[in-house]
Amino acid sequence: MIEPNRDGDVWVVAEQNDGRLHDVGLELLSKGRELADTLGVTLSAVVLGETAVHHAERLVRCGADRVFAGEHPLLSHYQTNPYAKAITALVQEHRPQIVIFGATALGRDLAPRVASAVRCGLTADCTDLDVGAHTEPGTKVTYDRLLYQIRPAFGGNIIATIVNPDRWPQMATVRDGVMRMPDESASRQGEVVRFTPDLSADDAVLHILEHHRTTRKVNLKAARIIVAGGAGVGGKDNFRLVWDLANCLGAAVGASRAAVDSGWIDKDHQVGQTGTTVRPALYVALGISGAVQHRSGMSETQKIVAVNADPDARIFQVAHYGIVGDLHRVVPMMIDAVKKRV
After folding, report:
1. Which of 231, 327, 237 is nearest to 288 (CA)?
2. Beta strands at 170-174 and 98-102: parallel, antiparallel or unpaired
3. Domain with CATH 3.40.50.1220 in the chain
4. pLDDT the model gives residue 226
5. Residue 35, pLDDT score
């Protein structure tokens, strides 16, 4: 166990694949910058790879004061053991007070290994982070400047705030898309620390024979307009209405988990807690009930229009404009109205 270091840095573990930084690491730098400024400490980014130093400049531009660039041939492609060993050794040497990972496939695999190795707590799939105080109910001891790790719990029915007073570093994974992308500044200056992790062939238990990469069919995060369908659409054939309205608006097509689980559309289109978190200018929700898991993935939209036959549907709680009616009648009317204005 690492003793709490209340002067330690805030760290963001930045992912890179095939020479490209993953967006989630950059998003976490914006929140990490806020946390570090509140605590009055340094914000550091950690990036691993065979030529990781190539990413240092952009990480500094996005807010990092220091970049730890770990380089080794065994880090060219992600494997759990070499990556976990490299980050664990770095944490033990520098004793940060906060370490944040993206809640990606890589982060969800890597963060628990590191947390287990340094014997600290880990909160998974956070949707927000903050700094505040905590008083233990029994002892009445108050801890100041703790990391508030905020995430949905009990199936999304409550929002839990989790603190870790004594098992440090305070460690969390954060969902992709819930933090804003930072503004890059070419004038920012930062320190780059290159290091070579102590790795051997025994640390790589797998041999990668081929590496295949597929791209998503839709980029929901970049879409300014999204038309999404839910269980209320009624079937795969009826989902054609969602596509038709999206085509008229020049929008991307999204979906609720219910629609994806029913096989009406691919998972790449799923919006929500177990899908993609989006922040478009306009989100049109068709036949979506508005479960909290879905709302957590789109509630930051600038304008939400909801169409649902149920006047008590929870989607109306977050919608700016609501239409109560049969979407099979309403959507064709919306399409006609859009076409008349084009």
Report:
1. 231
2. parallel
3. 220-341
4. 95
5. 96
Residue intervals of the chain classified under CATH 3.40.50.620 are 10-203
The three-state DSSP-derived secondary structure of 15-54 is CEECCEECHHHHHHHHHHHHHHHHHCCCEEEEEEECCHHH
Tell me which H or E stretch contains 115: helix 105-118
CATH class of 10-203: alpha beta
- Looking at the domain that runs over 220-341, which CATH code has it been given? 3.40.50.1220
Q: Are 246 and 272 in contact (CB under 8 A)?
A: no
Mean pLDDT confidence for 18-44: 93
Amino acid at 87: I
* Interval 171-193: pLDDT, tens: 999 988 788 889 899 999 999 99
For 275-327, how does the pLDDT look when each residue is reduced to its tens digit (9 = 90+)? 888 889 999 999 999 988 898 888 889 999 999 999 999 999 999 999 999 99
The whole-model pTM stands at 0.77
How far apart CA 186 and CA 138 sit, in angstroms, is 50
Confirm if 173 and 13 have CB atoms less than 8 A apart.
Answer: no
